[in-house]
Amino acid sequence: MDCCYSPEVGLDGTRLSQLDNFLRQWPQRNVHAVVIARRGKLVFERYFRGRERRWMEWSDAVEFSPTKKHDIRSISKSVTSLLIGVAISEDRFPSLDSPVIDYFPEYADLRTLKNGRITFRHLLTTHGLRWDESRAWKSQANNERGLLEAKDPSRYVLEQPMALPPGASFNYSGGATTLLGAALAKAVGQTLEVYAREKLFEPLGITDFEWLNFTNSAEVAAFAGLRLRPRDLAKLGQLVADHGRWNGKQLVPAWWIVESTKPHVNAEGPAAMYYGYQWWLGRSLLNGHEFTWTAGYGSGGQRLFIVPGLDLVVVVNAFNFRHYISNAILNRFVMPAVTDYPPLSA
């Protein structure tokens, strides 16, 4: 993306500047970066000082900038989905409707009649395994903690009992993405990090990134381990906005972008949202007009919003567990700053 601010991008800089006052209302806001692209141009950046977590370890206060990487947490799930689309287009990923457990003969001892019905398509949406990431981090019942600390993460996931038939009800799960990542690495014969570099990051000009391993395993953590600079995360958003194309080259199949960013299941919770293939799908109002968006969500307020109807990409990095702040940045400041569509109310 080119970086410039000019009237043709249709954003009101005065309205956007009000974001600074909004964030000052919270001394402990811990918002680190806001990056906006419109019509393929990088048009707005704000960086702040704050504390970040690299995995579970808190950093000292950091002056964030365009060159500082940041944990994107579970937005890593959405990046994994993009890579699966690439692998499918290369005929290197198993059929989405094939049983997951059959692709891992090393775990044949864990096969049951019930988990044998879980397909890769279920992993992309909702798989039916009993999985709970809502418990306190100190709790041994927190499956995300158990996953992170497991010596064999895939075995840990497949050891979980079934709660519901696959596809019956949404249950957010880093375990599902772990199995997807393990299958992808096995299918392409490369680590997730190497495959991502070759197929996505190098073509996008992303040279500074990390994809961290599990705590006790050499396996790359597909569900949450990726660290990127905010500008580079915006590039991934622009790739999705442009139907998988970058500089005239099709990096991700356009049909996969369509399929993975359409609603597949109700994402049950306090917000009326849907879930695609590892993407969140929501909507916002602007001047009485409803705009749908696709988003990568990560804990602590990490957000990657793609608003197709406005040709808009918004990145927020933070570590504030009042998650509404990141969505408020989109709804109260970025979208209302759009000057050319729809017409602003008098």
Beta content = 15-25%
Class inferred from helices and paired strands: alpha+beta
CATH homologous superfamily caption of the largest domain: DD-peptidase/beta-lactamase superfamily
CATH architecture of the largest domain: 3-Layer(aba) Sandwich
Describe, in plain words, how this protein is organized in 3D.
- Helix content is 29%, strand content 21%.
- Strand 15 and strand 16 (289-298) form a beta hairpin.
- The protein is built from ten helices and 18 strands.
- The longest helix has 15 residues, at 75-89.
- The protein folds into two domains: 2-54 and 64-80 and 192-337, 3-Layer(aba) Sandwich (Beta-lactamase), CATH 3.40.710; 89-188, Up-down Bundle (Methane Monooxygenase Hydroxylase, Chain G, domain 1).
- With 346 residues, it is α+β, with helices and mostly antiparallel strands.
- The mean pLDDT is 93.
- The two termini are 33 Å apart.
- The strands form five sheets. Strands 1-3-2-18-17-16-15-14-13 form a nine-stranded mixed β-sheet, with helices on both faces. It has a three-stranded antiparallel β-sheet with strand order 8-10-9. Strands 4-7 form a two-stranded antiparallel sheet.
- The protein is globular and about 60 Å long.
- Helix 2 packs parallel to helix 6.
